[in-house]
# Entry
Amino acid sequence: MLEEEYNPRRQLPAHLRPAPPEEPVFAFEIRPATSRDIPDMLEIYNYYVSNSTVTFDEDALTLKEMRSKFRHVVDQLHYPWLVAVSPSGMIFGYTYVTPWKQKAAYRFTVEDSIYLSPAATGKGIGKALLQRMLDEATEAGIKEVIAVIADRGAEASIAMHAKFGFTEIGHMGKVGFKFGRWLGTVLMQKSLKKAKKGTRALV
# Structure
């Protein structure tokens, strides 16, 4: 017979036990993206090109293509492009907006994009990025934000946008074909309004 069987260890009552150590806080900050972030953002994006249907791209984006897109959005259009960064400088994810259509009358309407590193999902980073992007888009004078989301494999993105006040305005079926199957898109829209002076914009 083992000692524990005839002399069981005593345990302190729950209210006298020491509290378990707190889990470390998952720290990150959101800041404007710079050209130095492009290789890391490209790696995140190309992961989704190869492994998911959240983007309908089938070929990996090149560094040259990513740099060109970044310059167009940030330097020419002056639209927000943001990154979530760890204290050590690791890029957890990014978000940006692009013109919804090229015709001039659409100039106050944009489409948003958010991509997270696979290891950074489920930690609130996507919500923080979306909130900051909406705030900065409002300050930039943007009036409408459109989200175009795959109707398969992107349920979390649809739910997140809905929590931020995006409403579903349409569903297009079988408009994309990737990984041997047809895919549709869910269209969601949010109107932006500048907050009164001294208050924060509502979402």
About this structure: Residues 198-203 have pLDDT under 50 and may be disordered. The two ends are 65 Å apart (CA to CA).
